[in-house]
Amino acid sequence: MGLPNDVMPKTELRTDQPTTGRIAYAMIQTVPWWLVALLILGLWVAYLVTTNTTYGEIFATLREGAVTTLRVSFFAYVFAMIIGLSVGLARVNPPSAKSGFGKLVVYNVATLYLEVLRGLPILVVLLIIAFVAVPSLIDTLTSLGFTITVRDVSIELRAIIALSLAYGAFLSEIFRAGIQSIERGQLEAGRSLGMTYIQVMQLIILPQAIRRILPPLGNDFISMIKDSALVAILAVRDITQLAKLSSGQSFLYLETYLLAAMIYLSMTVMGSLLVRWIEYRLRIEQR
Questions:
Q1: Were 168 and a residue from 83, 98, 120, 283 both cysteine, which residue would form a disulfide, CB within 3.0 to 4.6 Å?
Q2: pLDDT, tens digit (0-9, with 9 covering 90-100), for 94-126
């Protein structure tokens, strides 16, 4: 005969202590498998570059283009931030009935720039700036007595100007949104202390706004690196242009564009990881 139910020993299953399987599953979930896959792919490509002469020669050619890509992206983004901040400040407060004529003009000019540049493809902006705007400006300066020719403005500089103007429109909205996210009471408090509007923006509003918009600014710089490939249409010797020239001579399209893609991917992935680290640090500091 069996023991009564109230006498039989009971085995309690404690759910408060994780089992080995659960721990292993949790560890598997936390591993960034996408990054592991990219690292494996990168190591495989690095192995090909170091052991295969063909891949090594192609990489040596594209490495020069990588320097050009980073240079164009960096300078274009710096100028785009200056333009974006200026346009963003001009559009923070729409003109009212009490606003002066100057503010009305500045606001509408900034809005016109924003709508036009955001409404045009970046490739079209590149072509217009490089082959229309810059030559026309140089002709105007020449007629005014300046000794300058079209050849004095390099194609790379024209590409930087075009990318700066295109991305300045996008960054202006980021700056505007960041400034408007700061409580208006801080602006009024600064003005009540006798500070000018510029001083309040410089010392109170902008430092807080920039902390909030750092992640989207970083994401736009990553986009700038990718969109810089469009400057190849202007014959700027970046990664894309050198890959096109190299593959056209050797007919090694697979090898050339594989390395070009990996170079772009390595730059953008490192940038994405840096942006995620910045977001993580900002979340910690805000707690």
A1: 83
A2: 777 677 778 889 999 999 999 999 999 999 999
Q: Which CATH architecture has domain 53-286?
A: Orthogonal Bundle (1.10)
| Domain edges within the chain | 53-286
* Count of CA atoms in the C-beta half-sphere (13 A) of 216: 16
Q: How many CB atoms lie within 10 A of CB 43?
A: 10
Say how far apart CA 57 and CA 1 lie, in whole Å. 85
> How crowded is the C-beta side of 272, counted as CA atoms within 13 Å?
10
Between CA 47 and CA 70, with CA 226 as vertex, the angle to 5 degrees is 75
Q: Three-state SS across the chain? A: CCCCCCCCCCCCCCCCCCCHHHHHHHHHHHCCHHHHHHHHHHHHHHHHHHHCHHHHHHHHHHHHHHHHHHHHHHHHHHHHHHHHHHHHHHCCCCCCCCCCHHHHHHHHHHHHHHHHHHHCCHHHHHHHHHHHHHHHHHHHHHHCCCCCCHHHCCHHHHHHHHHHHHHHHHHHHHHHHHHHCCCHHHHHHHHHCCCCHHHHHHHHHHHHHHHHHHHHHHHHHHHHHHHHHHHHHHCCCCHHHHHHHHHHHHCCHHHHHHHHHHHHHHHHHHHHHHHHHHHHHHHHHHC
Handedness of CA 76, 82, 83, 87 (dihedral sign): positive
Segment 262-287, tens digit of pLDDT: 999 999 999 888 888 888 887 776 66
